[in-house]
Amino acid sequence: MIASSSPTRSPFQAQPLVRLVGIARMAAESSVVAEKQRVEYRTLPTRKWLNRCQSARVPFHWTINPYRGCEFGCKYCYARFTHEFMERRDAAAFETEIYAKDWDADAFRDELKSLKAAQIVGLGTATDPYQPAERRFERTRSVLRALTEARGISLFVTTKSDLVSRDVDLYREIGKHNQVRVSVTVTTVRRELARLTEPYAPRPDLRLKAVKDLAEGGVPVGVIASPILPMITDGEDNLRAVAGAAKRAGATHFGAGVLFLQPSAYNVFMPFVERRFPELAGKYKASYRNGAYLKGTYPERMSALVTRIRSEVGFMERDLDTVPAPAEETSQMRLF
Question: Residue 98's CB: how many other CB atoms inside 10 A?
Answer without folding.
Answer: 25
